Amino acid sequence: MQGTFRKQFVREPNDLRSYPALVLNADYRPLSYYPLSLWPWQEAIKAAWLDRVDIVAEYEEVVRSPSTTIRIPSVVVLKDFIRPQKRVAFTRFNLFLRDEFRCQYCGGAGDLTFDHVVPRARGGITSWENVVAACSGCNLKKGSKSLRQVGMALRKPPRQPAAEELRNTGRKFPPNHLHKSWLDFLYWDAELDA
Questions:
Q1: What is the mean pLDDT of residues 60-85?
Q2: Is 17 exposed, middle or buried (0-12, 13-18, 19+ CB in 10 A)?
Q3: Which three-class secondary structure state does DSSP give residue 41?
Q4: Burial class (CB in 10 A: 0-12, 13-18, 19+), 81
Q5: How many C-beta atoms surround the C-beta of residue 159 within 10 A?
Q6: Closest CA to 81 of 22, 23, 21, 27
Q7: pLDDT band with cut points at 50, 70 and 90 for residue 5
Protein backbone atom coordinates (compact mmCIF):
# COMPACT_ATOMS: atom_id res chain seq x y z
CA MET A 1 0.00 0.00 0.00
CA GLN A 2 2.67 2.50 0.98
CA GLY A 3 4.73 1.66 -2.15
CA THR A 4 1.72 2.35 -4.39
CA PHE A 5 1.03 5.64 -2.63
CA ARG A 6 4.69 6.63 -2.98
CA LYS A 7 4.68 5.91 -6.74
CA GLN A 8 1.49 7.93 -7.24
CA PHE A 9 2.85 10.82 -5.19
CA VAL A 10 6.13 10.87 -7.13
CA ARG A 11 4.41 10.65 -10.53
CA GLU A 12 1.79 13.32 -9.91
CA PRO A 13 4.06 16.36 -10.38
CA ASN A 14 5.14 15.05 -13.80
CA ASP A 15 1.51 14.64 -14.84
CA LEU A 16 0.74 18.18 -13.72
CA ARG A 17 3.50 19.68 -15.88
CA SER A 18 1.19 19.37 -18.82
CA TYR A 19 -1.23 22.04 -17.57
CA PRO A 20 0.17 25.39 -18.71
CA ALA A 21 -1.77 28.59 -18.17
CA LEU A 22 -2.28 31.07 -20.98
CA VAL A 23 -1.16 34.50 -19.70
CA LEU A 24 -3.14 37.51 -20.91
CA ASN A 25 -2.28 41.14 -20.45
CA ALA A 26 -4.77 43.36 -18.60
CA ASP A 27 -6.43 44.10 -21.99
CA TYR A 28 -7.15 40.34 -22.39
CA ARG A 29 -4.62 39.87 -25.20
CA PRO A 30 -1.79 37.35 -24.90
CA LEU A 31 1.54 38.87 -23.90
CA SER A 32 2.96 37.17 -27.01
CA TYR A 33 1.60 34.87 -29.67
CA TYR A 34 4.83 33.24 -30.77
CA PRO A 35 6.08 31.93 -28.55
CA LEU A 36 2.69 31.81 -26.87
CA SER A 37 2.75 33.39 -23.42
CA LEU A 38 2.36 30.39 -21.13
CA TRP A 39 3.24 29.80 -17.48
CA PRO A 40 3.63 26.49 -15.71
CA TRP A 41 0.63 25.75 -13.50
CA GLN A 42 2.73 26.43 -10.37
CA GLU A 43 3.47 30.01 -11.50
CA ALA A 44 -0.18 30.64 -12.32
CA ILE A 45 -1.31 29.46 -8.87
CA LYS A 46 1.42 31.48 -7.17
CA ALA A 47 0.45 34.64 -9.09
CA ALA A 48 -3.23 34.11 -8.21
CA TRP A 49 -2.36 33.54 -4.55
CA LEU A 50 -0.32 36.79 -4.55
CA ASP A 51 -3.30 38.58 -6.19
CA ARG A 52 -1.30 39.53 -9.31
CA VAL A 53 -3.69 37.81 -11.74
CA ASP A 54 -7.35 36.96 -12.11
CA ILE A 55 -8.23 33.41 -13.10
CA VAL A 56 -10.70 33.39 -16.00
CA ALA A 57 -10.65 29.68 -16.92
CA GLU A 58 -9.62 26.49 -15.18
CA TYR A 59 -8.80 22.87 -15.96
CA GLU A 60 -10.83 20.08 -14.38
CA GLU A 61 -7.74 18.90 -12.48
CA VAL A 62 -6.98 20.10 -8.98
CA VAL A 63 -3.97 20.38 -6.70
CA ARG A 64 -4.24 19.93 -2.98
CA SER A 65 -2.43 21.16 0.07
CA PRO A 66 -3.29 19.97 3.59
CA SER A 67 -5.85 22.76 3.92
CA THR A 68 -6.83 23.78 0.36
CA THR A 69 -7.97 22.32 -2.95
CA ILE A 70 -7.38 24.52 -6.01
CA ARG A 71 -8.44 23.93 -9.60
CA ILE A 72 -5.50 24.46 -11.96
CA PRO A 73 -5.84 27.74 -13.90
CA SER A 74 -5.85 27.45 -17.70
CA VAL A 75 -6.18 31.19 -18.45
CA VAL A 76 -5.00 34.05 -16.23
CA VAL A 77 -5.19 37.82 -16.74
CA LEU A 78 -2.60 40.18 -15.32
CA LYS A 79 -4.05 42.85 -13.04
CA ASP A 80 -1.46 45.40 -14.15
CA PHE A 81 -1.08 46.23 -17.83
CA ILE A 82 2.36 45.53 -19.30
CA ARG A 83 3.09 47.96 -22.11
CA PRO A 84 4.27 46.06 -25.21
CA GLN A 85 7.77 46.87 -26.38
CA LYS A 86 7.96 49.26 -29.31
CA ARG A 87 11.48 48.28 -30.36
CA VAL A 88 12.03 44.86 -31.87
CA ALA A 89 15.29 43.20 -30.84
CA PHE A 90 17.45 42.02 -33.72
CA THR A 91 17.67 38.31 -32.86
CA ARG A 92 17.81 35.15 -34.94
CA PHE A 93 14.34 34.17 -33.70
CA ASN A 94 12.80 37.55 -34.62
CA LEU A 95 14.52 37.47 -38.01
CA PHE A 96 13.07 34.01 -38.74
CA LEU A 97 9.66 35.18 -37.50
CA ARG A 98 9.78 38.27 -39.75
CA ASP A 99 10.54 35.97 -42.70
CA GLU A 100 7.86 33.51 -41.56
CA PHE A 101 10.39 30.69 -41.10
CA ARG A 102 10.96 30.50 -44.87
CA CYS A 103 14.09 30.89 -46.99
CA GLN A 104 13.89 34.28 -48.67
CA TYR A 105 15.48 32.87 -51.82
CA CYS A 106 13.65 29.59 -52.55
CA GLY A 107 10.75 29.68 -50.05
CA GLY A 108 11.82 26.45 -48.36
CA ALA A 109 11.20 25.91 -44.66
CA GLY A 110 13.89 23.40 -43.73
CA ASP A 111 17.35 23.81 -42.17
CA LEU A 112 17.27 27.60 -41.85
CA THR A 113 20.22 29.83 -41.21
CA PHE A 114 20.68 33.50 -42.06
CA ASP A 115 22.42 35.25 -44.94
CA HIS A 116 23.81 38.72 -45.54
CA VAL A 117 22.25 40.00 -48.79
CA VAL A 118 25.29 42.21 -49.36
CA PRO A 119 28.03 39.90 -48.07
CA ARG A 120 30.13 41.12 -45.17
CA ALA A 121 33.20 40.47 -47.33
CA ARG A 122 31.86 43.20 -49.65
CA GLY A 123 31.07 45.68 -46.89
CA GLY A 124 27.57 44.44 -45.94
CA ILE A 125 26.52 45.01 -42.36
CA THR A 126 24.53 42.88 -39.95
CA SER A 127 21.19 44.69 -39.82
CA TRP A 128 17.48 44.14 -40.41
CA GLU A 129 17.87 45.63 -43.90
CA ASN A 130 20.71 43.30 -44.96
CA VAL A 131 20.06 39.93 -43.29
CA VAL A 132 17.45 37.36 -44.33
CA ALA A 133 16.49 33.82 -43.41
CA ALA A 134 18.02 31.36 -45.86
CA CYS A 135 18.14 27.59 -46.16
CA SER A 136 21.59 26.02 -46.04
CA GLY A 137 21.49 25.18 -49.76
CA CYS A 138 20.74 28.72 -50.89
CA ASN A 139 23.18 30.19 -48.39
CA LEU A 140 25.92 27.92 -49.70
CA LYS A 141 25.00 28.63 -53.34
CA LYS A 142 25.11 32.39 -52.80
CA GLY A 143 28.25 32.41 -50.67
CA SER A 144 29.95 35.80 -50.72
CA LYS A 145 28.62 36.78 -54.14
CA SER A 146 25.97 39.31 -55.05
CA LEU A 147 22.45 38.20 -55.94
CA ARG A 148 23.01 39.23 -59.54
CA GLN A 149 26.21 37.18 -59.81
CA VAL A 150 24.41 33.96 -58.80
CA GLY A 151 21.09 34.73 -60.48
CA MET A 152 19.08 34.71 -57.26
CA ALA A 153 16.30 37.03 -56.13
CA LEU A 154 14.70 37.85 -52.80
CA ARG A 155 11.07 36.95 -52.21
CA LYS A 156 10.61 40.25 -50.36
CA PRO A 157 13.06 43.02 -49.46
CA PRO A 158 14.42 42.83 -45.91
CA ARG A 159 13.39 45.58 -43.51
CA GLN A 160 13.02 46.22 -39.82
CA PRO A 161 9.59 45.01 -38.68
CA ALA A 162 7.37 46.93 -36.31
CA ALA A 163 6.59 45.22 -33.00
CA GLU A 164 2.88 44.90 -33.88
CA GLU A 165 3.77 43.36 -37.24
CA LEU A 166 5.86 40.66 -35.53
CA ARG A 167 3.07 39.97 -33.03
CA ASN A 168 0.61 39.52 -35.90
CA THR A 169 3.03 37.27 -37.79
CA GLY A 170 3.39 35.16 -34.64
CA ARG A 171 -0.35 34.53 -34.67
CA LYS A 172 0.12 32.47 -37.85
CA PHE A 173 2.12 29.88 -35.90
CA PRO A 174 -0.07 28.39 -33.17
CA PRO A 175 1.62 25.94 -30.82
CA ASN A 176 1.12 22.20 -31.22
CA HIS A 177 -1.37 22.18 -28.36
CA LEU A 178 -4.17 24.68 -27.84
CA HIS A 179 -6.45 24.03 -24.90
CA LYS A 180 -10.12 24.72 -25.73
CA SER A 181 -10.30 27.34 -22.94
CA TRP A 182 -7.63 29.41 -24.72
CA LEU A 183 -9.31 29.76 -28.11
CA ASP A 184 -11.65 32.59 -27.17
CA PHE A 185 -8.69 34.65 -25.99
CA LEU A 186 -6.25 33.98 -28.80
CA TYR A 187 -8.14 35.05 -31.88
CA TRP A 188 -11.01 37.16 -30.59
CA ASP A 189 -9.76 40.25 -32.42
CA ALA A 190 -9.19 38.48 -35.76
CA GLU A 191 -11.15 39.79 -38.72
CA LEU A 192 -14.22 37.70 -39.44
CA ASP A 193 -14.80 36.15 -42.86
CA ALA A 194 -17.78 37.62 -44.71
A1: 94
A2: exposed
A3: helix
A4: exposed
A5: 11
A6: 27
A7: very low
